[in-house]
Amino acid sequence: MFKFFNLILQDTQMERIIDMRSDTVTLPTKEMKQTMLTAPLGDDVFGEDPTVNVIFIFFHCKKKVASLLGKEDALFVPSGTMANLICVLGHCWSRGSEVILGDQTHIFLFEQGGIAQLGGVHPRPLPNLPDGTFSIELMENVFRDNNIHFPVTSLVCIENTHNLIGGKALPLQWVDEVGRKCKELGVPLHVDGARLFNASVLLNVPPERLVRDASSVNICVSKGLGAPVGSVIAASHEFIERAKRLRKVLGGGMRQSGVLASMGIYAIDHATETIVNDHKNMALIANEAIEETEETEATEETEETEETEATEETEETEETEATEETEETEETEETKEIEKTEETEETKETEETDETKEIEET
Ligand SMILES: *Cc1c(COP(=O)(O)O)cnc(C)c1O
To answer: Where in this chain does the record put each Aromatic amino acid beta-eliminating lyase/threonine aldolase domain (predicted)?
Structure first.
């Protein structure tokens, strides 16, 4: 994996080093920046920035809704961390609330415990499984009875794609089951969809379908989508009204934020093509790496064979030698095939990975 960090590709006449520490290092394109220059602006705390309001229209407009998140309303906020905090606090409006979430999630591990530090919300982490899910049976088991000794289970959070688990897209069937169980238990579901578009492209499912049962969703425009700043919360109109209050108290009420939102809108508009391209490039790099490894292995094998041959020649007859060579070749080919399969599997995982090591990111 670390080998890739030094990968240099020819880009027209320029040699370019591809920085793969995180998709947060992505820069806005010229076209994206141009949208900023002509964006109509106003004071968004007064609700008067037309460009920021376009983000609402994005989610309001029936045609867009069909292809996006399928929620009533949306809110532009400065970061994904703030988006998650606002959503958790918005759902856990009463004191003594508890949230069920995976123990490898961004909210639990990488947001300074903000939900507890600032919101007084009690986290109930469940062990994340290797595919980013957790046991739904366990989720049901830890659900609190109405008992004065206990906090009140008020929310379930899932993360899609799951960053720390390797950027994996959560299996849709599991997402649906969590949604069904939440409804049954009467709690809302929040989806930290910082990279929801990656999951959508990987699974070939519209983003809306991935968050069908969610009461709130966070998407980051500042990760793989390439915008410099911002996240969008999508939820019901009622929830967004509450989210606006929370955004203000957290210091996230911005003024002429259309400067930023314009690039976010561009990023969302081009999300699918950007991510499809990203995944294609990832596959190219991975294949290149496989070929490189195979070449190195082949050279090593040839050297080994030559050495063996030399020794054998002095000790054995030509006939024996021929037999042994055939056997060796067969073995080598088999080994190669096994290695190839193993590598392809590794590569698949790499493709799914959002290339992000959160530790490096923050
Ligand atoms: C990056 C990320 C966030 C936080 O976004 P910031 O804009 O960096 O605060 C939240 N959740 C996940 C899964 C992330 O990868």
So the answer is: 19-298
